[in-house]
Amino acid sequence: MPLITTQKPDAKDKALLYETVRIAHEAKLKGNHPFGALLADAKGAILMEQGNDYEEGGSAMHAETLLLFKASKRYDSEFLATCTLYTNAEPCVMCTGALYWTNVRRLVYGITEKQLLALTEADVQNPTFDLPSAEVLAHGQKDIEVVGPTDDPSLIEAIVADHIGFWVH
């Protein structure tokens, strides 16, 4: 059974989560779903960033999956094991799988999948799961650190702001 740890984001993590909010907002301004992800090295330097790209390719064009696919082409598996995926909302099952398969060993997210589900409800474009990423990863074979959700009210408000009124249901 892999080691899955869950804790709250620290100050560096929160700063990078605010960057995912910026990325998500930029995606929303382009007509996409308000999700943003970034990949950071062990020191916290941003290596890559990606917003959702629903308008380009449909419902499977999640920010996290797109970012991880691109990262796996640019970096080797050993290096990716030292990196962190940051995302404004907890990754879905597909995105969590992409994290697992690309060998990224640390995940930091802002709001939970359950909090996201309360925002999206039964929206046809985003039929959100209610399945925590740590639960998905617990069925794998790798030690992966899971950090989140944030308890910072300002950060939560910033994440949620782009979702309010976005989802049609």
Describe the protein:
The chain is built from eight helices and six strands, in the order βαββαααβαβααβα. The protein is an alpha/beta fold. A six-stranded mixed beta sheet has the order 1-6-5-4-2-3, with helices on both faces. The longest helix is centred in the N-terminal third of the chain and has 19 residues. The protein is globular. The mean pLDDT is 91.
Provide the fold topology.
Layout: E1 4-7, H1 11-29, E2 36-40, E3 46-51, H2 54-57, H3 63-74, H4 77-80, E4 84-89, H5 93-102, E5 106-111, H6 113-120, H7 133-137, E6 144-147, H8 153-161
Parallel strand pairs: 1-6, 4-5, 5-6
Antiparallel strand pairs: 2-3, 2-4
Model regions low in confidence, pLDDT < 50 over at least 5 residues: none
What fraction, in percent, of the residue positions are helical?
40-55%
* Total number of beta strands: 6
The overall average pLDDT, rounded, is 91
**Secondary-structure content class:** alpha/beta
Using the CA coordinates, give the radius of gyration. Answer: 14 Å
| Count of individual helical segments | 8
Strand order, main sheet: write it out.
1-6-5-4-2-3
The string of secondary-structure elements, in order, is: EHEEHHHEHEHHEH
Distance between the termini: 38 Å
**Looking at the structure, what is the overall shape?**
globular
The amount of beta strand, in percent, is 15-25%
Largest sheet: number of strands, sense, barrel closure = 6 strands, mixed
